[in-house]
Structure formats: C-alpha cells, structure tokens
Design a protein that fits this description.
By secondary structure, the chain is of the alpha/beta class. It has one domain: Aldolase class I (TIM Barrel, Alpha-Beta Barrel). It has helices at about 5, 15-20, 25-35, 40-55, 95-110, 125-140, 155-160, 175-180, 190-200, 220-230, 255-270, 280-285, 290-295, 310, 325-340, and strands spanning about 60-65, 65-70, 115-120, 145, 165-170, 205-210, 235-240, 300, 340-345. The chain has a six-stranded parallel β-sheet. Helix 4 packs across helix 11 (about 255-270). The longest helix has 19 residues, at about 40-55. It is globular and about 60 Å long. The two termini are about 40 Å apart. The relative contact order is 0.17. The structure holds 5'-deoxyadenosine. 5'-deoxyadenosine binds next to loops.
C-alpha cells in the first residue's frame, strides 16, 4: 500500500510523548501516529493505547458469539467474497429454528451477546427477524446485535421494539469517492444516514473500516476514526483487508499488520470509551492476531458459532479461520488470563450508557 506517499505529516518526531499524552488529537497528529515507522515509537503508541483501554474499559474482555446465518447478498462490494457476482460460492440460509438453537448454544457457553450476521439477504423478512429476536430473548438472557446490512428504517424500528440492542453497519471507508468505487449501488452518505438513524432510535451502533484497500491513504484511515467519533459509535471495528478469490481484488496484497495495529491503537486513543474488537480478519492475517489486538486497545472478541456445515461457506475472504467454538473459547480464556485480563461477566453494553 502506497499510503505513506500520499500524505505528509508536519509534526516533529520529538513531539511523540507530548502527542500521546494529549486529550484531543488533531487529524495531523493522528496521521503522524499512523505513519510511525520506528519500532520504539510504535511500541510507545501501543503502550499508550493499552493504558487508555485500561482506563476506559478496564481489564474485561467481552465475548460476542456470532452466527453467520446466510451468505446470500444483494450487494456487490468489490472486496467481498459474498458479493452477488461471485457465482462460484455455494450459498446457504440457516432456518429460523436452527438460528434460535445456535443462539442457545452461545448462551450455554456462558456468552452474553448473540450477534446475528448475514449478507444483505431480504429473504428474511421483517417478521422473520422479529420472530428470531423475540425467541432468543425469551430463551436466553443475552444482548442481541444485528449485522444485516442496510435495511428499511421501519424494520430497524420494529427490531428495536422486539428487543434487539445493537446494530453493526461498518462504513468501510470514509472516503466518499473510494466508497462509491467499491460499492456500485451504494453511497457513503446513505450509510451514514442509516447509522445516525440507528443511534437516534436507541440502538448501540457499531461502525468501522477496512484497512489496506487499494487507493486508500493514511489520511482516509484518520478520517475513518474521526467519522466513528462524529457518529458517536458505541463499537468500532478496524479490520485488515484480506484478498478473496473470485473477486476483482483477488491479487491485491493483504493489509499490513503494523498499519492495522497502529490504526487500532490510534482509534483507542482518540475514541476512548468504545468497544473495539480483535477481529477474525486480524487472526487470519497472523496466528497471534487476536492476542496482538488485545494488547493495542481491543477489548472484544467474537467467537464464531456458525454451525459446521455452513461456516466454511461464509467466505468473506480467503483462509478465514474456523474452529470448534467450545474448544476455542477455552483456549481464548487461557490466552486472556495469560495477558492478566478477565472475561466480562455481564452483557458488555456500550460504555457510553
Ligand atoms: N477483507 C476484510 N474484511 C472484509 N469484509 C468484507 N470483505 C472483506 C475482505 N476482503 C468485512 C466488511 C464487512 C464485514 C462483515 O466483513 O468490513 O462489513
């Protein structure tokens, strides 16, 4: 990625400690931090992000069990393996009953948030999703996060009333031109309108970006963090691009690990009291990814509970990590304790409410 060539920071290196300890950072200061290249400087950035994570989020790591219930998608996002034009992908839809049963498994594993994610699949009607939300809430004492793409405001209203707590809708990139180039049918403005609406009706809202998209600059990444701030997001996910075969970006290199970690760290320093996940994409980029993420500002992990027969098919990108969730949660707990951290015991709601 040629990002460093496109933007310049005017800040002297000697100012690093001063900047890391400021309450509010300017965009130029964020670009300066994102552009750090000296190992010692990067370590100082990571340490400061970890301190701020501790101050605003404590040592608890919140687990969110995710069910990827459909890989059908009406959208054609250039980077994504689920894009409609990918005719090679074996598509699946999980029945309402199986979704509800999977949510029960998440609850039995001691996890207090169920994330329902799918491609943008209108086969599941407003009433279907309402039925799923109601049944999960009746059977399990969990928070529910929806991640279904852009749906109608009327649907958001009804799902909120049915008991859904949170909605994830990443803005993907805050650069409107890049956004339009990547999403032929969608506009950034539209996505932002949805995010604002979701917040206005009481959803805890999640947004975030993909790092390492072609033509993305360091300035764009600073804008991604600033957009999350402006939208007052409760959850923010900054995850690395990983190429997906059968997409136009199949030969684009994966995101740079260091830039991904620097983005998470700067996001923590700027956004402070938000939930930031150590994503599956990060652990796909490098085996120790989740552990590294937890050390640079992240406080959330989302173990995948998609039933075995489907999970290989939710192929957003190549080599997506799959595992047995029960064994994985055990291993995760050991890793979390080894970092001197704890598992969150409550639902881990927004730190802003
Ligand atoms: N690399 C990394 N993340 C991706 N997503 C989609 N395609 C890719 C990719 N190739 C992310 C998007 C989306 C989330 C479900 O997956 O950010 O919001």
């Amino acid at each position: 990625m040629k990002t460093d060539l496109n933007t310049k920071s005017h800040i002297e290196k000697t100012n690093l400690n001063y900047i890391l300890n400021k309450d509010e950072l300017s965009k130029d200061e964020m670009i300066f931090l994102l552009s750090l290249s000296d190992d010692k400087d990067i370590k100082a950035l990571f340490n400061r992000a970890d301190e701020i994570r501790k101050q605003f989020c404590g040592d608890e790591i919140h687990l969110r069990g995710i069910i990827e219930f459909s890989n059908y998608c009406e959208q054609d996002c250039v980077y994504c393996g689920l894009r409609k034009s990918n005719l090679t992908l074996d598509r699946y839809r999980i029945s309402i009953d199986e979704i509800i049963n999977t949510a029960r498994k998440i609850y039995s594993a001691g996890i207090k948030t169920v994330v329902l994610q799918s491609g943008e699949d209108f086969h599941y009607t407003k009433d279907d999703i309402t039925k799923i939300i109601r049944a999960i809430k009746e059977n399990c004492d969990v928070a529910i996060t929806l991640s279904l793409g852009e749906r109608s405001f009327d649907e958001y209203d009804e799902w909120k009333i049915a008991g859904a707590d949170r909605y994830l809708l990443k803005h993907e990139t805050a650069n409107p031109k890049l956004y339009s180039a990547l999403h032929s049918k969608q506009k950034l403005e539209e996505r932002i309108t949805h995010l604002r609406y979701l917040k206005s009706i009481g959803f805890q809202a999640g947004s975030g970006n993909i790092i390492g998209l072609p033509k993305q600059t360091i300035e764009d990444i600073a804008d991604d963090i600033l957009l999350c701030k402006e939208l007052d997001c409760d959850m923010c996910s900054f995850s690395p691009f990983i190429p997906s075969p059968e997409t136009p970006f199949k030969d684009v290199p994966a995101a740079d690990l260091s830039l991904t970690l620097k983005t998470m760290a700067v996001a923590r320093i700027v956004l402070k009291n938000v939930h930031i996940p150590a994503t599956t994409a990060l652990s796909t980029l490098t085996p120790e990814g989740r552990k590294l993420g937890l050390q640079v500002g992240a406080n959330v992990i989302m173990p995948n509970f998609t039933p075995d027969e489907y999970k290989d098919k939710y192929r957003i990108y190549a080599n997506k990590k799959t595992y047995d969730p029960i064994i994985y949660v055990q291993e995760l707990k050991q890793m979390i304790y080894s970092l001197g951290r704890k598992i969150g015991e409550d639902k881990g709601h927004s730190l802003k409410i």
